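Appendix C reproduces, verbatim, an entry submitted by the partner laboratory led by Prof. M.T., so that reviewers can inspect both the input and the predicted structure.
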Amino acid sequence: MYLTPEEEKMEAGEYGAAVQKSMEIIIALGEIYSAERLVNITSAQIAGVSYKTIGDAGLEFLEDMSKDARVIVPSTLNPAGVDLDRRDLGFSKEFTERQLKIIEAYRKMDITTTCTCTPYLVGNVPVKGDHVAWSESSAVAYVNSVIGAKTNREGGPGALSAAICGKTAEYGFHLDENRKANLIVEVEDEIKGADYGAIGYLVGKAVGDGVPYFKFKNRSSIDDLKSLGAALASSGAVALYHVEHLTPEYKEALPGLDISDLEQISISRADINETREKLSTSSKKPDLICLGCPHSSIEEIKQIAEKLAGKLLKNQLWVCTSISVKAAADRMGYTEIIEKAGGKLVCDTCMVVAPIEELGFEVIGVDSAKAANYVPSMCRLDVVFDDLENLLKSSILERKS
């Protein structure tokens, strides 16, 4: 791999031990994937944040790095295992204290501690063609596909190293030739809501780490694409997809390819409904509804507030989002409406990386195929997967007078 004179100095330790260690990680990854050089990045999004997933070993590593490591590009964090501000969710004092130590280590490295899987909603927004180093799977799918920036699906240490050095190895989706489609997906009917997650789950299993090209009957919203990418990345390892007439690189996804040589699949309403049914592991009514995987946008919170206005819930509701989006929801009055109905806006965390298995719940209601895929294995709890409207309707106790 070719290194510039400046990069050689970084590898040699002339900029300190943290930069040297980070360069060694970046170079090792580049050599594994036969990269010819490094490229400069404009931002990073770093996983390895929840104490539930990284434990004491991860905490020790981060505290050691924080002694002299500092990031040199705008960088944000993946969700933590708790809401960093509220203490009424039931998580243990020991877990919370260790989680806060992890956040403090990242803060010392000048990483913005917004703790969200939707960094593109809180200011970490590259432009088309930018090289970035992002590591949360749904965020990777979004930034590659919807924004048109370039990243591989980085691991937490790889993304942190890239943020410290401002560089990553040029391989995989950093190269234009690897961003073309290898599967065409035609959806036969118009779709909405949880259909996007079901389709993503179905196609992710079929394509693995490939690049699907979707032909939809209807135009999709930003939130629809967020749900689609999250499901693609969780059932498979999809880091990039294209949507005809919508995503920024769809015109470049197929030219130069013999379409007849590409695998093509068609998805019917029956396929979608069957997948939706499979994603539920229980027929019981959920005792906790968790929305916001990936984290809810202000438009999604608005929809929830509109459906709950003047009503009461008979079980618990968490709407997971970032602290930045919650601030907007507070100002718009949505938070007050949701909390009057008995729900909670929960920041910084989500049902996947929080230790909700310790809180006594048995069945979690979700409108996210990613959550439906991960909660049974990571939290050992059953899930009910359905549209937002149906989940809330089944949970409403009465209309307030």
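Residues 17-32 form the longest helix (16 residues). Additional entries are available on request from the coordinating office.
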